[in-house]
């Protein structure tokens, strides 16, 4: 299970190339698979739900801290880049 936030600029001809930003976060009490282990599936679901016509978006992963080391010290925002 994931928490999704989508941010878009209001329509503005000067910023027509600005991609929306999608932030995906994991709930802290979730005991299943981490979002970063299913990133392709999450991105495909976002594409289908919000941008079915193929619009590109910037994908950021959010974590409350360094969950891999079991440390909750500060939030982390990490860009996810897909290479086709």
Describe this structure in words.
The protein is of the alpha+beta class and 84 residues long. It has one domain. The chain has one helix and four strands; from the N terminus they run ββαββ. It has one helix spanning 39-50; strands at 2-7, 21-26, 58-63, 76-80. A four-stranded mixed β-sheet has the order 1-2-3-4, covered by helices on one side. α1 links the parallel β2 and β3 (58-63). It is globular, with a radius of gyration of 14 Å. The two termini are 26 Å apart. The mean pLDDT is 77.
Q: Looking at the structure, what is the overall shape?
A: globular
Total domains: 1
Topology as a string of helices (H) and strands (E): EEHEE
Could you tell me how far the N terminus lies from the C terminus, measured between alpha carbons in angstroms? 26 Å
Count up the helices. Answer: 1
Uncertain runs: none
For this entry, give a set of tags.
single chain; 84 residues; alpha+beta; 4-stranded mixed beta sheet; 1 helix; 14% helix; globular
Describe the protein's topology.
Blueprint: E1 2-7, E2 21-26, H1 39-50, E3 58-63, E4 76-80
Parallel strand pairs: 2-3
Antiparallel strand pairs: 1-2, 3-4
């Amino acid at each position: 299970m994931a928490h999704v936030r989508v941010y878009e600029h209001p329509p503005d001809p000067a910023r027509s190339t600005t991609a929306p930003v999608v932030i995906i976060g994991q709930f802290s009490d979730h005991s299943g698979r981490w979002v970063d282990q299913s990133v392709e599936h999450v991105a495909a679901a976002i594409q289908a739900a919000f941008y079915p016509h193929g619009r590109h978006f910037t994908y950021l992963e959010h974590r409350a801290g360094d969950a891999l080391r079991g440390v909750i010290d500060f939030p982390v925002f990490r860009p996810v880049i897909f290479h086709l």
